[in-house]
Task: structure prediction
Amino acid sequence: MNKLITIVLVALSLVSCKAPEARKPVTVKTGSFIDASVERNIKLNAQEKSSITKVMEQQPEMDFIASESGFWYYYNSKSEIDSLNTPNFGDIIDYNYNVKSLNGTLVYSKEDIQAQRYVMDKQELFTGLREGLKLMKTGETVTFLFPSQKAYGYYGDQNKIGSNMPLICEVTVLAIKENQSN
Result:
C-alpha cells in the first residue's frame, strides 16, 4: 500500500509540474486620445493660418513680418532712434494695447485695459504678447496677428475672448526701464 501511495504521489507531482506558459500582452491603446488631439490641433492651426492670411491679403499696403514664434506683425510706427534697445529679462515695460477679433470687432479697447506694467519674463502674460513685446522699442506701435495658441488658447479669457480665438492686438510701448542688474 505504501508503494501505491508513493507511485500515485510521484505521478501527481510529475503531472502537476509543467513549464510556465508565457502570458499574452494586454493591448491598450494609450495614444488614441493624444493622436486625435494632435489631428484636431493641426486642423485648427491650418484654419487659423488661412484666416490670418486672408486678413493680411486684405491689407496689401502693410508690410507683414512673420515672427519665428508663429505670429505675424507690422509696424504702425517704428522708432528711428538706434540707441533705443528692445527689452531684456527683468526690464520693466509700460505699454497699452487693444484687442480685436480677426474680423476687426473690438474686444477690449486701450481704455478698457488701461496702461499696463510688465516685468519682462518675470510675470504672467499670454505667450504672443510676451514674445511681441521683446521685439519692440520705446515709442513703437505694432499690430500683431496672433493665432489662438499664441493668445488665450482653448480656454479663452473666460470673459469676452472665446475658445480658440485668434486675435489682433495693437500694442504701444510707452516706456522701457532697464533692470539695473542686467
Summary: The longest helix spans residues 32-57. The domain at 71-177 is CATH 3.10.50.40 (Chitinase A; domain 3). The longest strand covers residues 167-177. The CA atoms of residues 5 and 11 lie 10 Å apart.
